[in-house]
Design goal:
- The protein has about 270 residues and is an alpha/beta fold.
- Helix content is about 45%, strand content about 10%.
- It has a single domain (about 10-270), classed as NAD(P)-binding Rossmann-like Domain (Rossmann fold), CATH 3.40.50.
- A seven-stranded parallel sheet has the order 3-2-1-4-5-6-7, sandwiched between helices.
- Strand 2, helix 2 (about 40-55) and strand 3 form a beta-alpha-beta unit.
- Helix 1 (about 20-30) crosses helix 6, helix 4 runs parallel beside helix 5 and helix 7 (about 240-250) packs across helix 8 (about 255-265).
- The termini are far apart.
Length: about 270
């Protein structure tokens, strides 16, 4: 199959004002796509859209909350009103939490699931008929935590595992109609998601985020995502850590678990028992 072209195509990206979201908007815009950028942070979103327009791209700012199905329907409707079609969707918006389960209010895990899973469901459901009509593409930003355990992030891992079941199954429904579905599983990226992570009580996490294997630049990951979606890849493991975690968690899960806990478990060594 030949690589997809995004020139003149309309791509809706959620979490657009964040680090990876902004990089994705710029990469698709550089390929000639028209950008529909959705985010809950209206001020940063307006700045992003203005920047894209200043560089000669068509960009529409769509302030809204992906956990609210009416906001997602309104974003898709506004995109169609502005551009007439919708070809691609990148479900990028997400939040994290860092806390051991025994110190975590279940409401925190519900919040993470609402954003990471149900938000992607809401936006995909609203966009799907229009993307199907264009034989377009859908991508979901998952994580290493979508296929392997990650200490202190039970809710985050659950939300990302849910994305895999949902989008792998959705692919089976739409691929024969020419719609591509790509799951992306990076490890750590230099974005604001760590600083915005929730603690066990729902407030901002107090412990610093410890990474394993270093952090990738958002622009580098955005480039890899763009190429994978254009090539209709089902799964992208965009960095060395994500590829090592994929194979080690399958071939030697106990070894993976020990290495993972050594790598990021120090975050929780001082957590009150």
């Amino acid at each position: 199959m030949s690589r997809r072209s995004f020139a003149g195509k309309v791509v809706l990206i959620s979490g657009a004002a964040g680090g990876l979201g902004s990089a994705l908007c710029r990469r698709y815009a550089a390929a000639g796509a028209h950008i529909a950028a959705m985010d809950i942070d209206a001020e940063r979103l307006d700045g992003l859209a203005a920047s894209l327009r200043a560089q000669g791209s068509e960009a529409l700012a769509l302030p809204g909350d992906i956990t609210a199905a009416p906001d997602c329907k309104a974003a898709v409707a506004a995109t169609l009103a502005r551009f007439g079609t919708l070809y691609g969707l990148v479900n990028n918006a997400g939040i994290s939490h860092r806390s051991l389960l025994q110190h975590t209010d279940p409401a925190v895990i519900r919040r993470v699931m609402e954003v990471n899973f149900f938000g992607a469901l809401n936006l995909t459901h609203a966009a799907l008929p229009h993307i199907s009509a264009q034989r377009g593409v859908i991508a979901a930003i998952s994580s290493v935590a979508g296929y392997a355990p990650l200490i202190g992030r039970t809710g985050y891992a659950a939300s990302k595992h849910a994305l895999h079941g949902f989008f792998d199954s959705l692919r089976s429904e739409v691929e024969d109609a020419g719609v591509g579905v790509t799951l992306v599983c990076p490890s750590f990226i230099r974005t604001g998601i760590g600083a915005a992570g929730l603690g066990g009580d729902g407030a901002a996490a107090s412990s610093p985020r410890i990474t394993s294997g270093g952090e990738s630049a958002a622009e580098d990951i955005a480039e890899r995502i763009f190429a994978a979606v254009a090539d209709d890849r089902r799964l992208l493991l965009p960095d060395r850590t994500s590829r090592l975690a994929w194979w080690l968690s399958r071939l030697a899960p106990a070894v993976y678990a020990r290495a993972m806990k050594r790598g990021v478990g120090a975050e929780f060594e001082s957590t009150p028992r």
